[in-house]
Amino acid sequence: MAQPENTAIDVVICDKSPLVLSGLTHILTSDGRFNLVATASDGERFLEAVDRFCFDIGIVGWDMPYVDGRGVLQTLRERENPPRVVVYTGNPEPGIPRQVMQLGGAGFCSKSEVPERLVEMLIAVNEGRMVFPFMDMRKGAADPLATLTVREHELLLSLVRGSTNAQIAGYLDISLNTVKFHLKNLYGKLEVSNRAQAVARYLKNQSRM
């Protein structure tokens, strides 16, 4: 619901970059239309802020430790009356805006845009609008492998090689829990339920090339 006139928009910022957090903090605290409630350095802390505070909009990065932007949106889909989320990222992967929309995000803004563009987007989202770059929705049935992140591609290739979760954690230098988290996202994007099906999907795709 849009805020009454002259009421500040409550915002929480979440980004892995201290520089981005500092820059956005300065922009929002200098603008009387916004009230900065909190900042977070990863998706896990952002979700903690959702539990602790009542706010209108979350500005959330896409590539973050522990819980990434996709994980944040997936979790919020299970919450009642969650804040609206604008994904703000420098990741150039063309499939991300579509994923954000499909997962219930309210907007997508590239870090290549001028800061004023993000501010305009926050105002629009608070007014109940969704703000996304142009997307050809006829391409909705595109190959899901094209939506994978670099890390998810690495994990998929590891599955194809027959690596165990422990082996993947070892050579990617990440924890087992992080491996499981990435695999969950990977399976979701490929619309499969286990590693065997993920490998089969990859091999089927390769046979078409």
Question: How would you describe what is shown here?
Answer:
This protein is an alpha/beta fold and 209 residues long. It folds into 2 domains: 9-137, Rossmann fold, CATH 3.40.50.2300; 144-203, Arc Repressor Mutant, subunit A (Orthogonal Bundle), CATH 1.10.10.10. 46% of the residues lie in helices and 13% in strands. The protein has a 5-stranded parallel beta sheet, sandwiched between helices. Helix 3 (69-76) links the parallel strand 3 and strand 4 (84-89). Helix 2 runs parallel beside helix 3 (69-76) and helix 6 packs across helix 9 (195-207). The protein starts with 8 loop residues before the first strand and ends with a helix.
Write the layout of secondary structure elements.
Blueprint (H helix, E strand, L loop, with lengths): L8 E6 L3 H12 L4 E7 L2 H10 L4 E4 L8 H8 L7 E6 L6 H7 L4 E4 L4 H12 L23 H11 L4 H8 L3 H15 L4 H13 L2
Parallel strand pairs: 1-2, 1-3, 3-4, 4-5
Helix pairs in contact: 2-3, 6-8, 6-9, 7-8
Mean pLDDT: 88
Hey, roughly how much beta strand do the residues contain? 5-15%
What are the segments in which pLDDT stays under 50 over at least 5 consecutive residues?
none
Structural class: alpha/beta
CATH class of the largest domain: Alpha Beta
User: How is the main sheet built?
Assistant: 5 strands, parallel
CATH homolog superfamily of the largest domain: Response regulator
Overall spatial form: elongated
Number of domains: 2
Number of helices: 9
Number of strands: 5
How far apart the termini lie comes to 47 Å
- Summarize the amount of helix as a percent range: 40-55%
Order of helices and strands: EHEHEHEHEHHHHH
Strand order of the largest sheet: 2-1-3-4-5
Radius of gyration: 18 Å
* CATH fold type of the largest domain: Rossmann fold
